[in-house]
Write a structure and sequence with these properties.
Elements (H helix, E strand, L loop, with lengths): L17 H10 L6 H9 L6 H19 L11 H21 L3 H17 L3 H18 L6 H33 L14 H13 L4 H17 L3 H16 L6 H18 L2 H11 L8 H16 L3 H13 L8 H19 L14 H7 L1 H5 L6 H13 L3 H18 L6 H15 L4 H7 L1 H9 L16 H10 L3
Helix pairs in contact: 1-2, 4-5, 4-6, 5-6, 6-7, 7-9, 8-9, 9-10, 9-11, 10-11, 11-12, 11-13, 13-14, 13-15, 14-15, 15-18, 18-19, 19-20, 20-21, 20-22
């Protein structure tokens, strides 16, 4: 043990220790590049790259060694996550000690681990553990009467694992396609066998599916529902998948988080307030409020409230998010999501849509733009809410000259980057703002000049392109009413 490099409390007693500086440097969210980290640690850029790389690899090995000694008795870990960690660790231990000659001890540890793997449906571990036990028992001529028992476990785990591999491969293809900013021509959901695959997924769901199989099947089926605009089927199927999760003797919080997050995206599109409130009441208590996914789900809930016209509730929710102690420790994407949401909620307060409160947080548009650098760099539509909120604030403050200054660059941006069908609504809204400028910010002139565009927007509702619905923090139809209300 003395020769192992591990992190311990002693590493943090002396702030001059290079490893400690490295650790704190990694934890600082404003360090994005290794070159910045080197300057942070050494306070100079004159240190050679080879010296820094040696420190880097030592630090990485120290972290990896420490991973085996992490205390899982924490609210950060679910029961299933703790079980997987312990089961995987004991599988490697049994392999290691069997190679040192301690075969009976190795079998005992592997047998105990196999029971855990079966209980929590870790099919890959169950497959490897049962195979290890069969191989070792056969070599030792030990437990010959039980080998058939372990073979049954092996074949059952093998079939389950092969099914999981098959459906997880297809679910990965679908997810990668939907998340890609450059959509490929070979859409996996338009392939000839996809409907057959959906049928197979439903057949698997009837036969006591494992957690991993539920996870893969729900990705396929729910995306198929959403892609084809079958939103009521989506809701019903999501509730069915959630029921399957709760039938287990344990809860897979990760899969529940995925289902709830996807559910909220469709609730947003359908403006289903009652379901939105039901989701919060029934499932939010299962999530750990210090986790990344908790903040993602909360923002989805806030955005769904905005689409359901629950502006005061959204204000209360966003304030609660900012007051969570772990908020400042979250990755930049979480903070920026929350800041973008708050910008729109503050705009609602500014124009009188939220009354009876005085916001705790002061909002300045220039400060806001400096706080969301990642969004500002994006050129695929994610930064549309940031571009538009500037126009909205200038309009609310009657700074029409600033809007005029930005309209040419905004139209150029739309021409260059929003050519795809899925950004049609954003293109349409930007053109409507351009007509507002041409009408000299007069209400009647604006309504006259934008009638055709308003009709086009209505003909392509938000559910036409579900993948980009989240880009509309507030639906464009609602936002346009507010814009017109600010004109004279």
């Amino acid at each position: 043990m003395n020769s192992l490099e591990l992190f311990s409390a002693a590493d943090f007693n002396d702030n001059s220790n290079l490893m400690t500086k490295f650790f704190h440097g990694i934890c600082r969210n404003d360090i994005a590049e290794l070159s910045d980290l080197k300057k942070f640690i050494y306070k100079t850029s004159n240190v050679s790259q080879s010296t820094f790389r040696r420190l880097f690899f030592r630090f990485r090995e120290k972290l990896l060694n420490t991973l085996f000694f992490i205390n899982t008795n924490s609210s950060k870990f679910t029961i299933r996550a703790i079980s997987y960690y312990e089961c995987a660790k004991r599988f490697f231990i049994s392999r290691m000690i069997s190679e040192r000659g301690f075969r009976y001890a190795a079998l005992s540890i592997a047998d105990d681990s196999l029971k855990i793997a079966i209980k929590f449906e870790f099919s890959e571990l169950a497959l490897n553990l049962s195979k290890f036990i069969i191989t070792l028992s056969g070599a030792m001529n030990y437990r010959a009467h039980l080998i058939s028992y372990y073979k049954d476990i092996y074949y059952e785990a093998k079939n389950m694992y092969l099914n999981e591999l098959k459906f997880s491969e297809h679910s990965r293809d679908v997810t990668a396609y939907l998340n890609s900013s450059h959509k490929r021509s070979n859409n996996p959901m338009q392939s000839n066998h996809f409907e057959n695959l959906i049928h197979e997924a439903w057949e698997c769901m009837k036969a006591a599916p494992s957690i991993e199989l539920i996870s893969s099947c729900c990705v396929l089926i729910l995306n198929y529902n959403k892609y084809n605009g079958k939103f009521n089927e989506f809701k019903n199927n999501t509730l069915l998948f959630i029921d399957e999760l709760f039938k287990k003797p344990f809860l897979s919080v990760f899969v529940l988080e995925y289902l709830v997050n996807e559910f909220l995206k469709v609730v947003l599109i359908t403006k289903d307030l009652s379901t939105c409130i039901l989701i919060k009441r029934k499932y939010f208590n299962y999530f750990n409020e210090i986790s990344f996914n908790w903040f993602v789900i909360r923002f989805g809930y806030i955005q769904a409230l905005l689409h359901c016209h629950e502006y005061f509730s959204s204000y209360q929710e966003i304030n609660m998010v900012f007051n969570i102690k772990s908020f400042n420790k979250q990755p930049p994407i979480i903070k920026q999501n929350s800041l973008v949401g708050y910008a729109y909620i503050y705009f609602l307060y500014k124009i009188g849509k939220i009354k009876g409160v005085t916001p705790d947080r002061e909002f300045r548009i220039n400060k806001f733009l400096n706080e969301v650098p990642e969004y500002s760099k994006d050129k695929q539509g994610v930064n549309i809410p940031i571009i538009l909120i500037q126009i909205l604030f200038f309009l609310a403050d009657h700074k029409h000259h600033l809007i005029i200054d930005r309209m040419d660059s905004l139209k150029l941006y739309a021409y260059r980057y929003l050519k795809k069908d899925e950004n049609f609504r954003s293109q349409c809204f930007i053109r409507m703002l351009g007509e507002m400028v041409r009408a000299g910010f007069k209400r009647q002139g604006t309504l006259f000049r934008t009638k055709a565009l308003t009709d086009k927007l209505k003909l392509v509702p938000i559910d036409t392109y579900p993948a980009t619905a989240e880009n509309e923090i507030i639906p464009y139809e609602d936002l346009w009413e507010m814009v017109v209300g600010l004109l004279k």
